[in-house]
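FAQ
Q: What does a multi-component entry look like?
A: The components come first, one per line:
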Amino acid sequence: MIVIVGSRHDPEVTRLRDLCAPSDARLLSCEDLSRDGWIMRDTSPDSAVVEKKLICVADIDGIVVRRSQIYPSELGHIIARDRAYVACEMTAFLVHWLRCLACPVVNMPSGVCLCGPMWSPFAWTHHAAQMGIPVVKQTRHGMRDQHRGATTEVVMLDGVRVAAQEDTVTSDADIRMSNYTRQLAVSSGARLLSARFMLSGGRPHFVGATPVPPVTQMLARALQVVITQSSVSRDSPGIGASNQK
Amino acid sequence: MIALWGHPTDYPMIAVRQALATMGAAVLFIDQEQILETHLDLDVEQHATGTLRVGRERVALANIGAVYLRPHDTLSLGAMSTASTDVQSAAIEFERDLAAWANVTEAGVVNRPSAMASNASKPHQTALIQEHGFHVPKTLLTTDMSAVKRFWATHERVIFKSMSSVRSVVVELSTAHLARLSDLTTCPVQFQQLIVGTDVRVHVVGDDVFACTIEADDTDYRYATKCVIMRTCELAAQVANMCRQLSVSLGLRVAGIDLRRTPDGRWYCFEANPSPGFTFYAAQTMQPIGAAIASLLVRLDGAH
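Then the predicted structure of the entire assembly, as tokens:
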């Protein structure tokens, strides 16, 4: 079973669940956190609730996180005055729960963000520049206008580029973008990262990055392969567990 | 120059400002009440550059060598709480970008917003704390009433408290709460084994460690209805070092660490607060924590 952590009102999330249906994909929504059955002792997740059904955490092959936090506005089933508090509590719980699972988690929480390094554009630019990657300067004012040129998006999952079928990774610029994205993913601790680049003088310049790339068939397929392979590896005696803790 | 970001009536901010004034340090105060009269120009490539204008004062970001930040929720402050959506959005955007600058600036920051994140999930922080040799209480996170009853039966005395950085009163579970256990299905709730012992609050400021014991009748001394007695104490060198190392590993130059020493000499750690309200303790103990933070900021500024 693949569990997708996200909002049932997010069309990208429901699309990913549909595309991963062959792997028994299910959606863990904030409504599931308001149901009887969650048990976690210290750093050991035990039972959980997914799509209103009680499950054993050991039955989860892998997790894909598609949300940065729980928002008060999502909690229509909670009385209004408690929503802000409950949203913080649910997010805090998921940060710990996701970090303690033995199965692969794409991505592991980073700081208070559930889906990995959802950094500000300033932080990403600074981080990339510190690594020697050419960047487009981020400015506070006029940010809307400064990236109007065409950009190329590179999606990397576990060090392998997730390419749309029509993409070819042959040019020097393509190879550079792949290498830069791989460096950024590793250094930020993100198994899944999408980076955008703008070509200037034939050279790619980093524009921004997100741990939540658009959902495509290729991405869904790649996620299922990564999770299935990790699951087989975990279940095979002597091969060694996945290093998700 | 040293930048301070917070509210003018916040006691820790007042203490640090006064100490810096006594030391004659050059200070730029970013007043949350005047946030709409404050302007930030920020460019980021390999370095963060730009200017910060507070009222009539204009400062190059490169000239700021140290920052102390203790911002409150801007939207709950004064006129901002009733301002238009556009005004509130502008304030939120300004503070978001100022926090982004605080995360990437080469100035010494007490503490970087990114480093404060571990406190937003206390169970996660507890796991990090345990790696530093402290004992931590057995914990249950659950929406399951029967699991709570089993946990209670096992540990005999149990407390419950918030998991997030939203402050809550620590309460001991009692039979009076049984009727409310059905509310658990709102969201997972954190229960912990109650640890009997003496509360010790430790403030780490750089290499300096200030410790005090706290005596109170209530489970949560912060909300004690009767007298709370705090006394300065000396920590064993090993425990003081564990506190320093914990702070460093969390990326915190200043931290308020909640410890409890059991009668058999074990040290439990509950939390490392990245933005400690140290004046609550210093008011009784007279420990010079505000002055220590001011000295740290002056040193960071000098090293910039």
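Q: Is there any commentary attached?
A: Sometimes. For this entry: Helices of chain A lie at 11-19, 83-99, 121-130, 143-146, 172-188, 217-235.
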